[in-house]
Amino acid sequence: MLPRAWFALVLLACGGAPPPTTPTPTVVPVEQPPVSAAAAQAALTEQYDVGKALYVSKKCASCHGDHGEGNPKNPPVIGAAALPAKAPVGAKLRASVTFATAKDVLAFVRAKMPLKEPNTLTDEEAAAVTSWMLSESKIDFAVKLDATTAGSIKLR
C-alpha cells in the first residue's frame, strides 16, 4: 500500500488537485428608506386620479352610475350601501364572495370587471379603480393600494 503523501503527490502531478475554492460573498440586505408621508400622499392622490379617469374610460359608470350610486340592476360601488361584507341576496356575480378588506374588492374587480370584458384590467388599473371607489366611500387608508397593502385595509 502506498503512503498517503505519495498518493497526494501523484494526484498533484496528474492535475487531479481540486480547484481552488473562492469564498461565497456575503449578501447584506439593504433596507429601503421609509417613504415620506408627503410622497405616500402624492402616490395615493395620483392613484385616485387615475382610478377616477378609468371609472369613466372603462365604462364602469354605464352599469354602476356616474357617481357609483348603482341602480336596480347593478350594485352601488360608492357610498354607505356599497361593497357590503356579504353579497346581496340574488347576487349572481358576487355569490359567496365576502368583502372584508380592500384585498377582497381588488381581487373581485381584477377578475370580474368590466362585466362584458372580465379580467382585462391590469393589476395597476384594478388597484386604481378600487382605490378611487374606497376613497369615495370614505374608507380611510394612507398608502397606495396594491396587492401588498390591500389586505391591511379593513372595509368596516
Structure commentary:
With 156 residues, this protein is mainly alpha-helical. The protein has a single domain (37-152), classed as Orthogonal Bundle (Cytochrome Bc1 Complex, Chain D, domain 2), CATH 1.10.760. It is 38% helix and 0% strand. The protein has helices at residues 4-13, 37-57, 61-64, 102-112, 123-136. α4 (102-112) packs across α5.
Any descriptors?
mainly alpha, single chain, 156 residues, 0% strand, Cytochrome Bc1 Complex, Chain D, domain 2
Brief description of this entry?
By secondary structure, the chain is mostly helical.
Reading the helices and strands in chain order gives HHHHH
Q: Just name the CATH architecture.
A: Orthogonal Bundle
- Cα-atom Rg, whole angstroms? 28 Å
- The CATH top-level class label: Mainly Alpha
Q: Mean pLDDT across all residues, rounded?
A: 86
Number of domains: 1
User: Major sheet: size, sense and barrel closure?
Assistant: none
CATH superfamily: Cytochrome c-like domain
Number of strands: 0
Structural class: mainly alpha
The number of helical runs is: 5
**What's the helical proportion of residues?**
25-40%
List the helices and strands and how they pair.
Layout: H1 4-13, H2 37-57, H3 61-64, H4 102-112, H5 123-136
Helix pairs in contact: 2-5, 4-5
